[in-house]
From TrEMBL:
Protein's name in the database: Centromere protein X
Subcellular location as annotated: Nucleus
Record has DNA-binding as a keyword: yes
Keyword terms of this UniProt record: DNA damage, DNA repair, DNA-binding, Nucleus
Pfam families: CENP-X (PF09415)
Keyword Transmembrane: no
Organism: Balaenoptera acutorostrata (Common minke whale)
Family: Belongs to the CENP-X/MHF2 family.
InterPro entries, sorted: CENP-X (IPR018552)
The encoding gene: CENPX
Length: 79
């Protein structure tokens, strides 16, 4: 599979993390942001792949939210 430069920006990941921190003074290193961004990218790609497989199993030509909802519980357990 060809890799393209698509992913989550460090600023977005930082903002998402800081929204859930209890202490506003909590800092996140650049390496941690990069690693978290990569994890989010892998999670989203895996969700898309599983949704496509679910749609194919249901003989559907298009993936919809229903297929994502069906694969999401197992996906969350796997991560």
């Amino acid at each position: 599979m060809e890799e393209i430069g698509v992913g989550f920006r460090k600023e977005l990941v930082s903002k998402l993390l800081h929204l859930h921190f209890k202490d506003d003074k909590t800092k996140v290193s650049g390496d941690a942001l990069q690693l978290t961004a990569e994890l989010l990218k892998i999670f989203v790609v895996e969700a898309a792949i599983r949704s496509v497989r679910q749609a194919q199993a249901e003989d559907l030509a298009q993936v919809d939210v229903e297929q994502l909802e069906k694969v999401l519980p197992q996906l969350l357990l796997d991560f």
